[in-house]
Amino acid sequence: MWVLLAMAALYGAYALYRSYRGWLKAEPSRVADPEDWRPVPATARRLLEDSDALAARGRYAEAVHLLLLRSIEDIEAQRPHLLRPTFTSREIGRLEALPSSARSAFGGIAAVVERAVFAETPIDASAFMRCRKEYEAFAFPGQWRTGGAPQ
């Protein structure tokens, strides 16, 4: 019985190590200049066109989910070792390594997707437009400094 208990404890310790080993090896998080985090404007515009096309067909949930996934891709492109496979959208939105404006924008999109997935709250046109504006804040330079319309 003691051998089985010891084996179970070792397995539990190993499972925890595997879950958190990326954090143990991770480079220190640093907040970069927000200008460094923006996706290429043409890429961001194409994404907005794709999400607008989905929304025009009434597929708001898919449009918002697309914005979330591409935002995660944008973050991963800027800091390839920052995100871990176990991170939730909520955890990503709280990362101190993200500029505060990016955290705010990403958090807004993630909250809508989270409510849609876990609370089964339907996403309507107004929720999509809020997320679209959040992505614009994440992607375009005018949003980073002044909170105004994209330049």
Q: What can you see in these coordinates?
A:
- This protein has helices at 2-25, 34-37, 41-56, 60-78, 89-93, 100-118, 125-139, 141-145.
- It has 151 residues and is mainly alpha-helical.
- It is elongated.
The rounded distance between the terminal residues' Cα atoms is 68 Å
- Shape estimate: elongated
Number of helices: 8
Mean pLDDT: 79
Q: Report the structural category.
A: mainly alpha
The number of distinct structural domains comes to 1
Summarize the amount of helix as a percent range: over 70%
Q: Care to count the β-strands?
A: 0
Round the Cα radius of gyration to an integer and report it. Answer: 19 Å
The unreliable regions are: 143-151
Percent of residues in beta strands? under 5%
Sketch the major β-sheet. Answer: none
Order of helices and strands: HHHHHHHH
Quick rundown:
With 151 residues, the chain is mostly helical.
Task: Map the helices and strands.
Layout: H1 2-25, H2 34-37, H3 41-56, H4 60-78, H5 89-93, H6 100-118, H7 125-139, H8 141-145
Helix pairs in contact: 3-4, 3-7, 4-6, 4-7, 6-7
